[in-house]
């Protein structure tokens, strides 16, 4: 199997599993506790049926949307995710170049492995930075200033990692950043020699936004769960978020909102967008799926800020359902991370193009030629 044999989300996942050592693969693939929410994120889309219209003249389809003041050619973007050079040696460089090719936005994590300065020099597509609120206020201020200087378009404060989720797969595999060999993982790393060669020869693994302030994650191996629990500020509150929004002074979003009350508070503190997300099921297991919360949040604040649906999206039809409920765009991490692991930039480009082709085809089959024509009349809920 190679990248040209990949036609959908599951194909990219299978190829990534062949390419990555087990601890690295399961870091992408795993979630919290019993992984109920992880499964629910995708299954929630199956509870809603599409109702197409016909004879609408659908020769030309426009997939563009506007979020955070930027017009994107696609109604989805590549969400910020940590540690990308563990998955492929090009990491965020590959993702950014692929996003630029399709004129969509991509996100860069505070735990990124390529600096915002380098990203800004490589690509001019719209860019989002994912901000983690650390106990170290000097670190917070330094990161904010670097992202401002790099002229990123959106700042997204992650609000659902006040402590690390219980990611039992990582505990079993011994996953850490940077990776370390254990008796249980030795065979897995040895059986993927190309990953090891690339890791050792394609540039030092670093977390450029953090390493001048903390050793954890770069020179001191730690799990992501432990990093969140020990390094992030658990006293973070709405006043802190409002101060960050004011300090940033541009498009500001909260990533990880799941309730109507929190969506309303986001409007009150000046946010221009929210990502309805449960962190890919990696934090609070048993929580609702973003798609299940989407309609009530759109009804409450959809006219006041941009609402992004993030989590469990495997198909173009999933995106159509979220857009029909009122999301301005969709986003995801696993959406492209498996493809990154499978083949670097070429893999990410193939994944984006697959979703684009699915969306074009499905829009035509729905009888719609632009995103604004999608609405709730296109949907029927099985359990209502």
Short description:
The protein has 384 residues and is an alpha/beta fold. It has 15 helices and twelve strands. The chain has one domain: Aldolase class I (TIM Barrel), CATH 3.20.20.
Describe the protein.
The structure is a single chain. β6, α6 (137-149) and β7 form a beta-alpha-beta unit. With 384 residues, the chain is α/β, with parallel strands linked by helices. The chain is built from 15 helices and twelve strands. It has one domain: TIM Barrel (Alpha-Beta Barrel).
Mean pLDDT: 96
Number of helices: 15
Strand content: 5-15%
Distance between the termini: 42 Å
Number of domains: 1
CATH class: Alpha Beta
Strand count, sense and closure of the main sheet?
8 strands, parallel
CATH superfamily name? Aldolase class I
Instruction: Please count the beta strands (DSSP E, at least 2 residues each).
Output: 12
What are its keywords?
single chain; 384 residues; alpha/beta; TIM Barrel; eight-stranded parallel beta sheet; two-stranded antiparallel ribbon; 12 strands; globular
């Amino acid at each position: 199997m190679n990248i040209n044999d990949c036609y959908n989300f599951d194909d990219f996942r299978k190829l990534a599993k062949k390419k990555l050592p087990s601890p690295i693969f399961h870091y992408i693939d795993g979630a919290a506790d019993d992984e109920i929410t992880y499964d629910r994120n995708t299954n929630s889309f199956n509870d809603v049926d599409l109702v197409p219209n016909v004879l609408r003249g659908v020769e030309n389809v426009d997939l563009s949307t506007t979020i955070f003041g930027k017009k994107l050619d696609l109604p989805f973007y590549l969400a910020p995710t940590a540690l990308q050079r563990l998955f492929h040696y090009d990491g965020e460089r590959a993702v950014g170049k692929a996003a630029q090719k399709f004129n969509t936005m991509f996100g860069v994590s505070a735990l990124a492995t390529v600096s915002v300065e380098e990203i800004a020099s490589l690509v001019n597509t719209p860019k989002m930075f994912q901000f983690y609120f650390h106990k170290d206020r000097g670190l917070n201020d330094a990161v904010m200033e670097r992202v401002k200087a790099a002229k990123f378009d959106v700042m997204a404060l992650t609000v659902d990692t006040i402590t690390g989720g219980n990611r039992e797969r990582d505990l079993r595999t011994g996953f850490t950043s940077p990776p370390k060999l254990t008796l249980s993982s030795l065979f897995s790393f040895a059986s993927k020699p190309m990953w090891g060669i690339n890791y050792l020869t394609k540039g030092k693994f670093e977390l450029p936004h953090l390493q001048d302030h903390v050793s954890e994650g770069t020179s001191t191996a730690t799990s992501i769960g432990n990093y969140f629990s020990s390094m992030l500020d658990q006293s973070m509150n709405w006043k802190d978020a409002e101060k960050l929004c004011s300090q940033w002074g541009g498009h500001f979003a909260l990533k990880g909102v799941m309730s109507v009350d929190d969506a309303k508070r986001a409007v009150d503190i000046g946010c221009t967008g929210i990502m309805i997300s449960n962190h890919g099921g990696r934090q609070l297991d048993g929580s609702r799926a973003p798609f299940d919360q989407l309609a009530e949040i759109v009804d409450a604040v959809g006219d006041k800020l941009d609402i992004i649906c993030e989590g469990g999206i495997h198909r173009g039809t999933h995106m159509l359902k979220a857009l029909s409920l009122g999301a301005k765009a969709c986003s995801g991490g696993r959406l492209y991370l498996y493809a990154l692991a499978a083949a670097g930039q070429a893999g990410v480009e193939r994944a984006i193009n697959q979703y684009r082709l699915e969306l074009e085809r499905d829009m035509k089959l729905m009888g719609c030629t632009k995103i604004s024509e999608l609405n709730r009349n296109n949907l029927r809920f099985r359990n209502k």
